[in-house]
Design a protein that fits this description.
seven-stranded parallel beta sheet; two-stranded antiparallel sheet; 10 helices; alpha/beta; TIM Barrel; globular; 280 residues; binds NADP nicotinamide-adenine-dinucleotide phosphate
Length: 280
């Protein structure tokens, strides 16, 4: 089981428990949050608690999440901001892939402007656009890296085949796919990342569904250990692989504090295996 507190990608070392800033927006990840001041507090509190890796995207809001991060935390010091591009937003809960190189370049430029950076710490392709040749999308990432517009490149929502194809064009340091104790569809991608030393950023890290509900398998284990389901989910992820970099998101300080405390939860092997063996 993995116990390392940090993960290093490119020239950046971060603590393995980050923060996801998607929820600092309005309903449907659209527009401004109702409690803007509260969201700014969450960001500042995250850094106080030791978080030094914050995940966002141009499409969260759109633009709102990046704007709030800049307002709360610029200049960022040792904190790394990982953003993404590659999705159009046409309304609440609407996400449309757009991997045209000129669009990805525009969004990189606009993230630089909003975040107030000369080079983005980590620029992730949000999703490969099936309507644009993949090599054109990967080639643009390579160009941005070569030009110094971005310091490192990541992918999101990819298969192993897409990851291998991308790596033939550009160094890929992280992959961000949906993964948690009750959703292991990306297990082969995680295994590939671990073998290659690529960071794996599981989105939707807090397990849900029947196992996490009151009386479910995960809930029972959490009660036995005096922790919450969210904490147990995060602790299991951290133990699962040394390349795992969870980014639980929340718009509430109380949930943030609860999630960050999960880094201190030590799982014994029997509990780790019990969670590993749970199937929905
Ligand atoms: N690459 C992708 O395609 C993709 C897709 C989705 C997300 N992401 C990234 O991954 C991050 C995490 O994703 P996510 O799917 O978990 O979305 P998220 O928007 O960050 O949401 C987490 C949800 O869980 C709740 N929550 C958080 N901590 C909790 C706790 N301790 N107890 C109870 N509820 C809690 C939050 O509610 P409260 O606000 O009320 O706490 C919120 O509704 C996002 O912020 C984003 O950065 C990436």
């Amino acid at each position: 089981m993995s116990t390392s507190e940090t993960f290093t990608y490119a020239d950046q070392t971060v603590r393995r428990l980050g923060y996801g800033a998607m929820g600092l927006t309005g309903e449907g990840v659209w527009g401004y949050p109702k409690d803007r001041a509260g969201c700014l507090n969450v960001l500042r509190r995250a850094v106080e608690l030791g978080v030094d890796f914050i995940d966002t995207a141009d499409s969260y809001g759109p633009y709102v999440s990046e704007e709030l991060i800049a307002e709360a935390l610029h200049p960022y010091g040792h904190v790394r901001i990982a953003t993404k591009a590659g999705l159009l937003r046409t309304g609440p809960n609407k996400w449309i892939a757009c991997g045209r190189p000129d669009y990805l370049r525009q969004e990189c430029e606009m993230s630089l402007r909003r975040l107030g950076q000369e080079s983005l710490d980590l620029f992730q392709l949000h999703r490969v656009d099936d309507d644009v040749p993949a090599d054109e999308q990967f080639g643009l990432l390579r160009a941005l890296l070569d030009e110094g517009k971005v310091r490192a490149v990541g992918l999101s929502n990819v298969t192993v085949d897409q990851l291998v194809a991308a790596r033939a064009v550009v160094p890929v340091v992280t992959v961000q796919n949906r993964y948690n104790a009750t959703d292991r569809h990306s297990e082969t991608v995680l295994d590939y990342c671990e073998a290659q030393g690529i960071g794996f950023i599981p989105w939707y890290p807090v397990a849900s569904g029947s196992l996490a509900r009151s009386g479910g398998g995960l809930d029972e284990l959490a009660r036995d250990h005096g922790v919450t389901v969210a904490q147990l989910s995060i602790a299991w992820l951290l133990a699962r692989s040394p390349v795992m970099l969870p980014i639980p998101g929340t718009s509430q300080v109380a949930h943030l504090e609860e999630n960050c405390a999960a880094a201190k939860v030590t799982l014994d092997r029997a509990t780790y295996e019990a969670i590993d063996g749970l199937t929905a």
